[in-house]
Amino acid sequence: MNKGMFEEDDETEEALFEEDEEISSEQWQEACWVVISAYFDEKGLVRQQLDSFDEFIQMNVQRIVEDSPPVELQSEARLRNLTYSSPLYIDITKTMTRSGEEPKETKYEKVFVGKIPIMLRSSYCMLANMSDRDLSELNECPLDPGGYFVINGSEKVLIAQEKMATNTVYVFSMKDGNRPTSTLWVNMLPRGGGGSKKSAMGPKIIAILPYIKQEIPVMIVFRALGFVSDHDILEHIIYDFEDPEMMEMVKPSLDEAFVIQEQNVALNFIGARGAKPGVTKEQRIKYAREILQKEMLPHVGISDFCETKKAYFLGYMVHRLLLAALGRRELDDRDHMGNKRLDLAGPLLAFLFRALFRNLLKEVRLTAQKYINKNGDFMLDLCVKTPLITRGLAYSLATGNWGDQKKAHQSRAGVSQVLNRLTYTATLSHLRRCNSPIGREGKLAKPRQLHNTQWGMVCPAETPEGQAVGL
């Protein structure tokens, strides 16, 4: 989990390796430990937590004013059951447009929208870069690595959450009661969950598109993207036309879609399986275009004229499926560390902040609309309900239920935990812990076993006992 660059110690290198002299295995081992010690001396053991939170503040929150009012000390927050946080300000521009008049702009600077809990020892914490003497004077332990929050006087740590890497093509074998056990699935996981999935069912290749209730033959999807002729479609799927096995595998799919030879007919075919009944043909075609443009493979592009890029990506997905079906490429390993990502403090807080900020904008819009309906002017900064973000962030960090407070049953539990202070090693272990979202009652052994790709990434120093072992 720890990554970074380090500077070589020239003096140590000269002492260990003299010119024109063979290096023994003992010298190599000693050199390795010198480098490892130098790395951890500079970076520390919880750098991943600190960097992740720094990224959240710098990349996901628009603006935090540096000249914020004085905050209480961390030790005072612990003793008085306070939350160690920093205020968040935004700049707002209100534009009033009345009929027959010029638009009138009013700017509101430094509008307070809430407080964001600050991670100790991060770049935005007052303890950052302090000397040991200064830390001792503030009743802070110089050996405390930070990487946690103080919420209502309690120390809280965010546990890194494992997930499958998004925007990546996977080929899995999946058992389904409605299909043969030999079904191969190509799965595309976009950011935010939900997405398009391609599967090979028997000899024909079908696609499952977002908001489309029925399975669509994949060749019809290509034609809906504007690639009508069989030759154009095969150019995107089969990179070598002299490959008879692959050509033979796509032939049933081409025969199935033979009756549709125009783009509008293909769009109407897709739209009829997703739009509400009773709409006109033009509305069905428009609906299908929006699905293909904005919902299918959104990471490739959602603007106009992205059809060619999406056709190439879709062709690559089908190509990967065919390679696996022909036995030329192994199925993807769900437990491979390269196929996983860790949601640390940055992505977790960004997910929470995005939902809370959306609710804040909704409240501002409703309040402003009430004033507009009365034909009265208003102060836009008074429409901002500051407790929404403050309470939302504090609630999730305090309870560990990661999500909307009103939808607690949909929230992830156990994301935030009380920091273990039993021993120094226990604290470090808790700050570097990972959690896999797999159900604890599952009987599959593979996800629980130590995968060889975890070497150098995840430390297997400890694991829970009982049902959660290995997870």
Automatic annotation (TrEMBL):
One cellular-component annotation, GO: DNA-directed RNA polymerase complex
Q: What's a single GO MF annotation on this record?
A: ribonucleoside binding
Per UniProt, residues of the RNA polymerase Rpb2 domain are: 165-343, 417-471
The reply to whether Transmembrane helix figures as a keyword in the UniProt entry is: no
GO terms under biological process: DNA-templated transcription
- Enzyme Commission identifier(s): 2.7.7.6
Per the record, the domain of life is Eukaryota
Record keywords, A-Z: DNA-directed RNA polymerase, Nucleotidyltransferase, Transcription, Transferase
Q: By its UniProt entry, which Pfam families does this protein fall under?
A: RNA_pol_Rpb2_1, RNA_pol_Rpb2_2, RNA_pol_Rpb2_3
RNA polymerase beta subunit protrusion domain ranges (all copies): 75-390
Q: What class of enzyme is it?
A: transferase
Q: Does the keyword Signal apply?
A: no
Similarity comment: Belongs to the RNA polymerase beta chain family.
User: What's this protein's name?
Assistant: DNA-directed RNA polymerase
Per the UniProt record, the lineage of the source organism begins with: Eukaryota, Metazoa, Ecdysozoa, Nematoda, Chromadorea
